[in-house]
Fold this sequence. Notes:
Layout: E1 2-6, H1 11-21, E2 28-30, E3 40-48, E4 51-60, E5 63-71, H2 76-95, H3 109-120, H4 122-132, H5 137-156, E6 161-168, E7 170-171, E8 183-184, H6 188-214, E9 218-226, H7 234-247, E10 255-261, H8 268-276, E11 281-284, H9 291-296, H10 303-316, E12 321-327, H11 334-347, E13 351-356, H12 364-368, H13 376-392, E14 396-402, E15 411-416, H14 423-430, E16 434-438, E17 443-447, E18 454-458, H15 463-468, H16 470-476, H17 478-487
Parallel strand pairs: 1-2, 1-3, 6-9, 6-16, 7-8, 9-10, 10-11, 11-12, 12-13
Antiparallel strand pairs: 3-4, 4-5, 13-15, 14-15, 17-18
Helix pairs in contact: 1-2, 3-4, 3-5, 4-5, 6-7, 7-8, 8-10, 11-13
Bound molecules: iron/sulfur cluster (SF4).
Amino acid sequence: MTVYIIGHKFHFETENLCRMFYPNSDIHLEYEMQDIQGDLIITKMNIADGNTVLSVDASIDGKTEKAERTIDIYTDDEVEYNLALCLYDCLTKITDYTPAWGLLTGVRPSKLMNRLIEEKGEENAKTYFKNKLLVSEGKTQLAFDVAMAQKQIFNDNRADSFSLYVSIPFCPSRCSYCSFVSHSITSSNAKKLLEPYIENLAKEIVITADYAKNNNLRLESVYFGGGTPGILSAEQSEFLINTVKNNFDMSFCREFTFESGRADTITDEKLLTLKNCGVDRISINPQTFDNGVLELIGRKHTAEEAVEAYRLAQNIGFDSINMDLIAGLPGDTVEGFMNSVDKAISLGAENITVHALALKRSSNLVTKENAALSQDMAAAQMIDYANKTLSESGYIPYYMYRQSRCVGNLENVGWCLPGKECLYNVYMMEEIHTVLAVGAGAVTKLKAPHDNLIERIFNYKYPYEYNTGFDTLVERKNRISEFYSTYN
Ligand code: SF4
């Protein structure tokens, strides 16, 4: 599909909106009219007689639609908004599909809801979502409920707060839907990388702790994520956790999460080690409790093993366990997904995070198994069931985000029993404080203490680059102190 961007600069927003209607199409942007055949969308801005005219002409799958709006005041916001309305108007008519999130293409609906509540008050924020952004009643309420659940966490946050993220980008094998840069530990190359990786990671933890100390930052939460941190042996986990604890000031740390991840990595020895090291929140991620689906997506564990791992963790004394589920997996059915939700609830998991399948270009599923994809409607039913059943079972939605290329344009929502919110998820998703991140693929996000400015420091993506380019990477961390001395 060719999308023309003529006379305006909103190519990013235009492409995102087109993607909402055509998540799996190749969208090609052009900035000058050409003689191109096929599906076309022409988005245009003209200024005439002091008026700004915004128009969209779409011709897709043999159907054509036009929309035009004239505004008398030129501001970027007005142009962007009115152009989006034209595009939305054409595409809803051509596809006969009305996205539940309306015009909203952003990753963080609850962040926007929080901002609007602050600026306009609760009721006006909801009205803005519904009337201006055309978000459905249900999704508006969801974003609002998330914002309400986060209130106390926002209130407790301080200008000097920060969290630490430790990246373990290795997995026991690669799941077919995964787009993450994780290395399957079954390959001998990845195995060779792991030991030096752990050594470097420990060095980076020590260096980062110095920056935190020198800038008088206060550690609120620690999160070991991946990949699958559960691939670490008990000794390796203990070594890294103790490196964190021995170098950071832990006196204000309110949460220590270790994403054990897949059941095929979990043993009682490892769980006991985590518990003894002071980890108070873990994640065991079944994704589905259907063995056929698990096999199809290349996860090398069964539903029974996930339940067993959960019971093991419960018996060891973990009382804050997250389970991730995914709606829209290939081979799954609405009924199968409903069973998975029911199962996670019946186990009593304190956190249940419901993801909608997102297929990035780098996942094997997109490149090899595209046929498995016509699941949008089913995924919407799955998510509706999850939302209804979880809230009826006493769970509250406390964080959310959206991804591009998500089945049915759906959202990912973290649900929890009251009081069991994962603080790190809220800090990170709502960007309310700095996250210092260590390891391959990790991105440090510096948040200015007194305004909403965010700056990122990227680590190398892959473990081999991380190991070989470690010195350069460490130099980049100088920016932490520069940033705080500028914005403090
Ligand atoms: S466990 Fe997670 S990170 Fe690892 S391959 Fe599977 S989806 Fe990707």
